[in-house]
Design goal:
Blueprint (H helix, E strand, L loop, with lengths): L1 E5 L12 H14 L22 H19 L3 E10 L5 E9 L3
Antiparallel strand pairs: 1-3, 2-3
């Protein structure tokens, strides 16, 4: 099953109803966590210094970071693509399409 995960907002659900909800929430958490901010796993998350780079370079680096982090920390899914939409103020919002293999 393929799911689009919008990487902005979202509430934390401490009791996901199924594997899909759990994986989606984990992907959001991975992508919302800055690297070096988790005490027992400093490499968990996404490099936050990328945001200060020029937009085309930042997009390429963030895509690579997202793919690597999800591959490492949420092995129950595969990243199909990472896309970005800009709002009127130029803020980029990422959407990650993942494939979840249900067993």
């Amino acid at each position: 099953m393929e799911v689009d995960v919008l990487l902005s907002g979202g509430e934390i659900n401490f009791a996901p109803a199924n594997v899909i909800e759990e994986v989606v929430q984990n992907v959001r958490t991975i992508c919302a966590t800055p690297k070096y901010s988790v005490p027992m796993d400093r490499l968990f998350g996404i490099n936050g210094t990328i945001v200060d780079r020029p937009t085309p370079k930042a997009i390429a680096e963030i895509q690579a970071e997202i793919i690597q982090a999800i591959r490492k920390y949420e092995p129950r899914c595969r990243v199909k693509r990472v896309t970005f939409d800009a709002d009127i103020d130029g803020k980029l919002v990422a959407t990650v399409r993942i494939r979840i293999d249900e067993e």
